[in-house]
Amino acid sequence: MEKMGRSKKGKSQEDQGDGKNDTGDQKSNQISSELHDLKEIVINGFATLKHDFKEMNTKIESVIQGQQKLEDKVFELEKKQKNLSDNFGEVEKSIQYHGDEVEEVKTKNEKLHQDLYNSTQELNNTKMALDQLKIQIEKQERYARGFNLRVIGITEEEGEDVIKKISDIMDKKFDMKQLLLENAYRIGRRGERPRHIIVKFLRRPDRQIVLAKAREKLNGESYYITVDLTQEELAQKRAAKPTMDRLFKENLRPRFRNGKIYVNNTVIPLDKQVIV
Q: 196, 213, 211, 200: which is closest to 152 by C-alpha?
């Protein structure tokens, strides 16, 4: 009985020792596996670091190259800046050198402007004075021609006595035997048509009588008598012709006098389309 009990007890202790050995082996295998995995991680990590380091090195080289290019560019810009600074200095010297000349030109220019202004004012004053003079001359010429009449259409003959021809017309047509004439003469160049005759009366009333009766007394004749107009009056009469023609068609008997149209002593304005 004792032997059997010891035998069982010893067997039980051996089983426990085998169990402990199995557990140790498992732990050893686990540690080996973990060491292997850790080795793989370390190897892969070194490989990754090596690759990243290589890329970083490439980028650094690229940055260094870019930096070198920038430094070269900065050098070129500094060089250009120096050239520009030198040129600007020369320009400043030139401006300073010509400064006095510029001021002199400005002074002359201002004087020219002032002279031009003064000349313009003088010219305007002269024009105004000339216009006033023309008005006075026109008035004087109209007054002088107020003693004249113009005879148009009388046959012109070689060696004719113009005063006698006009005196005969005044005698026969107007019954003015004692009429005194200052002068009578033809004007203009000879041509196919007879030249006009200017008749100068000594008295205005005689001239007015002839003018008032001319249309009636010379009806049917090849010649006629009219007023002696100045050049300005002729231009005004040409401008007034359309209005005059319209008034004649309306049987209003218009008269042109002193640059104006009259109907029964009332001034008639020119038609708008012919005002010049």
A: 196
